[in-house]
């Protein structure tokens, strides 16, 4: 029992001296705050450097060319909330693929075509969103 009391008194004494040391600011505490600021500044600099390098890779297209593959997605369309039909070009053929959660099915195989998208000659040119928005706002304010 005396051993337990002695241990308890030693712990209380250590806690009290720790509380006194924490209450009085020391020069070591301000030095550690300065070094913490320096570490954080270095971390921000490294993260900014990484973001800049990623932006440069994306800007100049170096990331795309790094992993040249033999398959290329020609196009696709969503046919449901989680289902898509995709056309994949592999070598000299196009493969029409149905993609759903947990499933990928080859639907058809076609010979490679020169142009996937054909525009109608008499189709009116598409308006840009800004012009459409301005027109809609003008209609709303006029009426």
TrEMBL record:
TM regions (residue ranges): 37-57
Pfam families the record matches: FliO (PF04347)
Signal peptide: 1-21
Keywords associated with the record: Bacterial flagellum, Cell membrane, Cell projection, Cilium, Flagellum, Membrane, Signal, Transmembrane, Transmembrane helix
Keyword Cytoplasm on entry: no
Compartments where found: Cell membrane; Bacterial flagellum basal body
Family assignment from sequence similarity: Belongs to the FliO/MopB family.
Protein's name according to its UniProt entry: Flagellar protein
Organism: Undibacterium arcticum
Gene this protein is translated from: fliO
